[in-house]
UniProtKB/TrEMBL annotation:
InterPro entries: Aldolase_TIM, GH, Glyco_hydro_27, Glyco_hydro_27/36_CS, Glyco_hydro_b, Melibiase_C. It catalyses: Hydrolysis of terminal, non-reducing alpha-D-galactose residues in alpha-D-galactosides, including galactose oligosaccharides, galactomannans and galactolipids. Keywords: Disulfide bond, Glycosidase, Hydrolase, Signal. One of its GO terms (molecular function) is alpha-galactosidase activity. Belongs to the glycosyl hydrolase 27 family. Residues 327-399 form the Alpha galactosidase C-terminal domain. The keyword Signal applies. This is Alpha-galactosidase. Pfam families: Melibiase_2, Melibiase_C. GO terms for biological process: carbohydrate catabolic process. Its EC number is 3.2.1.22. It comes from the Bacteria. Residues 1-26 form the signal peptide.
Length: 403
């Protein structure tokens, strides 16, 4: 989160080495995240400007818009939800003005609507926005508190960590969450600082951030530094496919579809937003929306609820797609699916339209096939060639069914 990394960078003591203490060998409950988690998070649009009315209205909008039924089940409250200090017993206190009814009441409200509640804290002494205490040294208390409140998902950030090795901090919280006995999805938000894809499954995590923070922009040119654009994150995340699978997900950060006018960025075009969403689906990424779902236009809702693109992301095989051809500004990505179909992305990164061509042989399904365009929902049949005219900053998503 940019505010976390920029405005309070001086407060964050980021660890630069891995712990010599072996990580826990306990594996996460894969059933909690057998497919990439889907939901909504408050940060990308609202930052610290949150309260219980916003969360309740968002939960209602997730239902009325069809997003809940499309698979978005987690309603996640990010930073700034608690009082600046703990109470006399050392427990976190919901902010008395923003959340006067308490987090447990919000959890009940969300649960009654068929969804689950997520919460945020940091593996440090303070959270990234420095508005509330972090969990370092209070892991058991906080995990128990979250479980008692009915929390179902924890986003665990990396700020103000006092130089304590990452594996040590994230192991301690993983053990504390498991000790509660409550099923809680564990999201490690360590920004890829210490290659969490190599150790996060062993500390009980279900997903782990692979990069620095995303903003609603196509490209910034940063390799892994704030701010990251859509293309920058794809370039970093593409080589981590072997670490992804049911219960274990690379997290290239939250969705910027429908997020506008944040930190000077006007937002993505419709083509860019579809490419962003489609490539996240190809990479088997968690789909955590960050827009204001209470007032989103139909175009944004249609992107976020496209059932055929979501099906690619949620495919039970759990494979992360990879590029099979990279011609510089044009790429061809392939993702095998559980039923033997192939998901295919013809990805045009450039500033001009391009014609991208491949064959059924190149995608590993030689012979005739039915091609379904997942955005236009039209079908064609081919005996070999696969070709599409792709606008600038866009991706054509196809599902190939071999005959």
């Amino acid at each position: 989160m940019p505010l976390h990394r920029v405005a309070f960078a001086a407060l964050a003591a980021v660890t630069t080495c891995l712990s010599v203490v072996p990580a826990s060998t306990a594996e996460p409950d894969d059933d909690l995240a057998a497919t990439p988690p889907m939901g909504w998070n408050s940060w990308n649009t609202f930052g610290c400007d949150i309260n219980e009315q916003l969360i309740r209205e968002t939960a209602d909008a997730l239902v009325s818009s069809g997003m809940r039924d499309a698979g978005y089940r987690y309603v996640n409250i990010d930073d700034c939800w608690a009082e600046p200090e703990r109470d006399a017993s050392g427990r976190l206190q919901p902010h008395h003005e923003r959340f006067p009814g308490g987090i447990a009441a919000i959890a009940d409200y969300v649960h009654e609507r068929g969804m689950k509640l997520g919460i945020y804290t940091s593996a440090g002494t303070r959270t990234c926005a420095d508005t509330m205490p972090g969990a370092l040294g209070h892991e058991e208390t906080d995990a128990t508190t979250f479980a008692e409140w009915g929390v179902d998902y924890l986003k665990y950030d990396n700020c103000n960590n006092q130089g304590v090795p990452a594996t040590e901090r994230y192991t301690t919280m993983g053990e504390a969450l498991r000790a509660t006995g409550r099923p809680i999805v564990y999201s490690v938000c360590e920004w890829g600082e210490n290659a969490p894809w190599e150790w996060a499954p062993g500390v009980g995590a279900h997903l782990w951030r692979t990069t620095d923070d995303i903003r609603p922009v196509w490209e910034t040119g940063n390799t892994n530094d704030f701010p990251m654009g859509v293309v920058d994150i794809i370039d970093f995340n593409r080589d981590l496919a072997r670490y992804a699978g049911p219960g274990d997900w690379n997290d290239p950060d939250m969705l910027e579809v429908g997020v506008h006018d944040v930190d000077g960025y006007p937002g993505l075009t419709d083509d860019e937003a579809r490419a962003h969403f489609g490539m996240w689906a190809m990479m088997a990424s968690p789909l955590i929306a960050g827009n204001d779902v209470r007032s989103m236009p139909d175009e944004v809702r249609d992107i976020l609820t496209n059932p055929e693109v979501i099906a690619i992301d949620q495919d039970s095989l759990g494979a992360q797609g990879t590029p099979i051809r990279d011609d510089g500004d044009q790429e061809i990505w392939l993702k095998p699916l559980a039923n033997g179909d192939k998901a295919l992305a013809l990805f045009n990164r450039s500033n001009t339209p391009a014609t991208i061509t491949t064959t059924t042989s190149e995608i590993g399904a030689p012979g005739p096939a039915t091609l379904r365009n997942l955005w236009t929902r039209t079908e064609t049949t081919t005996t070999a060639d696969i070709t599409a005219d792709v606008p600038a900053h866009a991706a054509v998503l196809l599902r190939a069914t071999p005959h």
